[in-house]
Amino acid sequence: MPTMADVARSAGVSVATVSHVLNDTRPVLPHTRQAVLDAVEELGYTPNTLARSLVTSRTRSIGLAVSAISNPYFTEILQGVEAAALEQGYGLLIADPHDDPGHEREVVRLLHERRVDGMIVAPSADPSALVAYLGRHRVPAVFLDRVVDAPVGDGAPHFDQVCAEGAEPTARLVTHLAGLGHRRIGLVAGRPGLSTTRERITGYRHGLAAAGLPHDERLLVHGDSEAAGGERATAALLSLAVPPTALVTANNAMTIGALRALRDRGLSVPGDLALCCFDDFPWADLFSPRLTAVAQPSRELGARAVEMLLERLAAPDRPARTVRLPSAFVHRTSCGCPEQPEQAPELAHERTLP
């Protein structure tokens, strides 16, 4: 197996110069750097990652803590994170906090003990322990998908955050259904306490107000961001004395649950109940009817989280920022509209907040 000394002899440089090139510990002239890289390629030299981490205090690894990895939405986010990390030469360590604050704190601790250079985390509904740990240990981190609206506790630091727009796209679903004549529009909301849940409830209420419809609290039921919860919530809405004629589901797992509840009651979409959902499925246009949905830029969210983390590693003291990527309205037929001609999704603009 070739050694660093072999690379140095082949490139005609010192072992120290090879180390500086491979570890980025000192500027090296471009032609010298290229000679070292050519020798590495020709000899098939593989750097010792452990030894390099001792020199640079970096492991070139990123910790990713997201719940419900089996959810297609988070699976696509994972693909975006992995591709972007690999492109920059970083490995990935993955943990599932299960949306439990205590478990979240534990998996973040374990990732930290494995000396990851930084973390990308989708916070739980109570991120106080998470924020306290990251702040106390000065761990570079980016919050993904779900944001922490304000520092938790005195002196708690701000963190970089990246998420998709949530309120305006949800309002768009509601006003679309109202425009089709629906006056009782229900919402199957996500797990209480999550920023995504709050934003989609806000959008739901704004949509009702924009359409001149009253807000009936009985038409808003939490499905806890899971299929089983979505099924229970939809069943509760259908059991009302005056049930909704249209429904918005606030994530893809709860959409599956809602469809199960409707099937069990022999109800059809959109014949008996119009349906719009937040989160598009890769196979949503294969459903019958095809699902009208808000599509989040999941892979882009993952890639942007990696980009923001690497920027934080390069400049630890720069101000924190929150980036919101646009979601798209995908018009299909579950809302009760006729088949639409194929068209590009409607996008808003990316926003960056200090």
Task: Give a quick rundown of the structure.
The chain is of the alpha/beta class and 354 residues long. The protein has 12 helices and 14 strands. The longest helix has 17 residues, at 298-314.
Characterization of this structure:
The chain is of the alpha/beta class and 354 residues long. The protein is 42% helix and 16% strand. The chain is built from 12 helices and 14 strands. It has helices at 4-11, 15-23, 30-43, 49-56, 72-87, 101-113, 128-136, 167-179, 195-210, 227-238, 252-264, 298-314; strands spanning 61-65, 91-95, 118-121, 141-144, 160-164, 185-189, 220-222, 246-249, 274-278, 292-295, 322-325, 328-330, 346-347, 351-353. A 7-stranded mixed sheet has the order 2-1-3-4-5-11-14, sandwiched between helices. It is elongated, with a radius of gyration of 24 Å. The termini are far apart. Residues 152-156 have low confidence and may be disordered.
List the helices and strands and how they pair.
Layout: H1 4-11, H2 15-23, H3 30-43, H4 49-56, E1 61-65, H5 72-87, E2 91-95, H6 101-113, E3 118-121, H7 128-136, E4 141-144, E5 160-164, H8 167-179, E6 185-189, H9 195-210, E7 220-222, H10 227-238, E8 246-249, H11 252-264, E9 274-278, E10 292-295, H12 298-314, E11 322-325, E12 328-330, E13 346-347, E14 351-353
Parallel strand pairs: 1-2, 1-3, 3-4, 4-5, 5-11, 6-7, 6-8, 8-9, 9-10
Antiparallel strand pairs: 10-12, 11-14, 12-13
